[in-house]
Design a protein that fits this description.
This protein has about 260 residues and is an alpha/beta fold. Helices cover about 20% and strands about 35% of the residues. Helix 5 runs parallel beside helix 6. The structure holds flavin-adenine dinucleotide and FE2/S2 (inorganic) cluster (FES).
């Protein structure tokens, strides 16, 4: 059930030059939340900015009733959020559908880029808990913007990194590593979240090799609950016609096979 509540801030800490980790007490949200879902956060006590900001669940700590979010400081909303060190903030969630997996999966790959890496840690935790071999491919502009490499390793994932400038891992794109992995490893499923060019590359690769792929989209949002139609994406319906789905409500996770990107 979606709730809108005031949550106590337990931690709001800079973890990289542009990134913060926020931990809040929300037992009502953590008890039902699943990987891939998100919350809408009010980042100011005034009407400016008016709209809540969507941030994905980074860790779901059901036993202690908390969630953790990792966010990149970009504009007005996230600057204000980074200044909230104690007290309460208004949060609505859990929202969206989340990732899915099957007990029978043996080997999966997770591909994350930039702040799109944030929602993939809790997914990896669940896949590892399901007994899978999990390959994690992380992409970033440089090592100062590379999230969670050590956390994925600690979970027991096999981690490979690509950065645009070669400051960590391979110099190049994370899609190049995925192409090599696909050629040597039988994957049951690929999961992806990151910038659109990366997502587009992952979809093309997995489609060409007929590997199922789930993609989390980070479309700009207004209401976050399916009411304003401000976040629609184009999809191909089962009968082949073109339709629209709301990223906040039917997503943010979609099967790659149903998404239509401009470059298709
Ligand atoms: C479902 C969902 C989950 C998300 N999860 C995370 C997360 O876990 N961590 C995280 O760091 N960010 C996440 N985002 C993106 C985050 O919501 C935006 O970065 C944030 O709303 C920016 O707010 P702002 O007021 O700081 O910036 P604004 O002042 O609104 O914008 C600053 C700049 O960022 C760009 N921008 C804003 N929103 C987006 C967006 N959604 N996609 C691409 N560019 C954008 C703007 O075009 C502008 O150039 C998520 C977005 C969605 C829709
Ligand atoms: S943000 Fe309003 S419908 Fe999705």
């Amino acid at each position: 059930m979606v709730v809108s509540i005031k949550a106590s801030i337990l931690e709001n800490k800079k973890i990289l030059p542009d990134f913060y980790r926020l931990k809040i007490a929300v037992p009502q949200i953590s008890k039902t939340a699943v990987p891939g879902q998100f919350v809408m956060i009010k980042t100011s006590s005034t009407l400016d900015p008016l709209l809540r900001r969507p941030i994905s669940l980074h860790r779901i700590n059901r036993d202690v009733g908390t969630i953790e979010l990792v966010y990149q400081v970009l504009g007005k909303g996230t600057i204000l959020l980074s200044e909230m060190v104690q007290g309460e903030l208004e949060v609505m969630g859990p929202l969206g559908n989340g990732f899915s997996w099957q007990q029978s999966f043996k080997r999966t790959a997770i591909v994350g880029g930039g702040c799109g890496i944030a929602p993939l840690l809790t997914l990896a935790e669940h896949l590892i808990g399901n007994g899978q071999e999990v390959h994690v491919l992380l992409g970033a502009q440089n090592k100062e913007k590379l999230l969670n490499e050590a956390d994925f390793k600690e979970l027991g994932c096999k981690v490979l990194v690509a950065t645009d400038n070669g400051s960590s891992g391979r110099k190049g794109f994370v899609t190049e590593i995925l192409e090599e992995l696909i050629s040597t490893t039988n994957l049951d499923q690929v999961y992806c979240c990151g910038p659109l060019p990366m997502t587009n590359g992952v979809i093309k690769l997995t489609k060409s090799k007929m590997i199922p792929c789930q993609v989390s989209l980070e479309e700009r949002m207004a209401c976050g609950i399916g009411a304003c139609l401000g976040c629609v994406c184009q999809v191909r319906n089962e009968d082949g016609t073109i339709g629209y789905k709301r990223v906040c409500h039917e997503g943010p996770v979609f099967n790659a096979s149903e998404l239509i990107f401009e470059k298709d």
